[in-house]
Amino acid sequence: MSEPVRDLPVGSPAVEKAVELARRGVITHLTVHGERVAAIVPESVIEAIHAVEDAEDAEDAEDAEDAAEADRAMDEPGEPVPWEQVKAELDL
Consecutive sets of 10 residues in the chain, 92 residues long: mean pLDDT of each? Predict the structure, then answer.
């Protein structure tokens, strides 16, 4: 995870209410002068974000390996095959 994480004990009644709402799936935005600056969210939201990040990381790693494999193929000896020939051989 790239962003810093900090645990904050529940103390004030407003925060306790926001935590209770989060347990029921509700997101509570914290505001300063009407501007949203943070949120108290259900843990399931954080887990979903991490799952997406993990999937993206895996996809990035796969893309990098595919690119490396393509580079290795380009370095192989031999004559290039014309695109028209490839299409004909593959019935494209």
Answer: 68 87 93 90 93 92 90 87 93 92
- Residue 34: left if φ>0, alpha if ψ -120 to 50, beta else—which one? left
Other CB atoms within a 10 A radius of the CB of residue 23 amount to 10
Which letter, b or e, does each residue of 32-47 get, where b requires 16 or more Cβ atoms within 10 Å of its Cβ? eeeeeeeebbbeeeee
Question: Token digits for 37?
Answer: 């600056």
How far is residue 84's CA from residue 92's CA, in Å, rounded to a whole number?
A: 9
CA dihedral sign, ordered 43, 45, 51, 57: negative
